[in-house]
Every structure is written in C-alpha cells, then in structure tokens.
Amino acid sequence: MKTLLNIIWLIFSGLWMALGYLLAGVICCILVITIPWGLACFRIAGYALWPFGRTTVVRPGAGAASGIGNVVWFIFAGLWLTLGHITLGIGLCLSIIGIPFGVAHFKMVPVSLVPLGREIVSTETPAAYPHYRW
C-alpha cells in the first residue's frame, strides 16, 4: 500500500516539492557558507519524493549550532516552505481521496521548519536509528 501511495504522491505532489527542495539545495551549495542547509534540502527532497513509510526523528546529538542554524533557516526558507506544505495539505484534504496526501504534507511541516538536528528514518524501526547520521 505504501508503494502505491508513494507513486500517486510522486505524480501529483512529490515531484514538484522535491524539485523545489533540490533548487534550494543547489542555491545553498553554490553559496559556500550555506552548505549545511543545502545538504538538509537534499535530504528533505528525498523525503518529499517518497514520504510514505518514512518519518523524521530528532537527532539526540544536535547541539546549539543546529538551533542557531534552524533560526536562520526559518527566517530565509523555512517559513515559505512550511506555508507551501500547509497550503497544499489543506487543498488535498478537501477531497476524500486526497486526505492521505494532505496528511503527508502536514507530516513534512516540522522538518521544513527546522531541518537541522533531524533524521529521516523508516517508520518500521524509528527507535533503532538514533545514532545513524545521513
């Protein structure tokens, strides 16, 4: 079922969101000082392509640098990406068929707001990955 949902997601919503994250990642990597945000964009782009069966967990080793980086991210990109996810989520929830996809957009809101200090893991064993770094 997850595969079917992911394929439908990819066609109607995931490809466009992933392209947006990829574009943001390329721009961030061109500007050398923003490479950590670029790498976060690339991780989120993979998550935006195939979200069903995956979730995000807080990385326990994330420190103050992640918090400061998340504040900068929120000001320059996080707010706009989050508004995109919320808008698309509300639009998709207006139909019965779109509700799972709207919920998937809402599931991406936390990682689009504060991507540093989070990891994307499988929903089958999220507790098994607290030490794994992407």
Automatic annotation (TrEMBL):
Short name of one Pfam family: YccF
InterPro entries linked to this entry: Inner_membrane_protein (IPR052937), UCP028777 (IPR031308), YccF (IPR005185)
Domain of life: Bacteria
Source organism: Streptomyces iconiensis
Membrane-spanning residues: 7-24, 62-80, 86-106
Name by which UniProt lists this protein: YccF domain-containing protein
Annotated Inner membrane component domain residues: 4-54, 68-118
UniProt keyword annotations, A-Z: Membrane, Transmembrane, Transmembrane helix
Organism taxonomic ancestry: Bacteria, Bacillati, Actinomycetota, Actinomycetes, Kitasatosporales
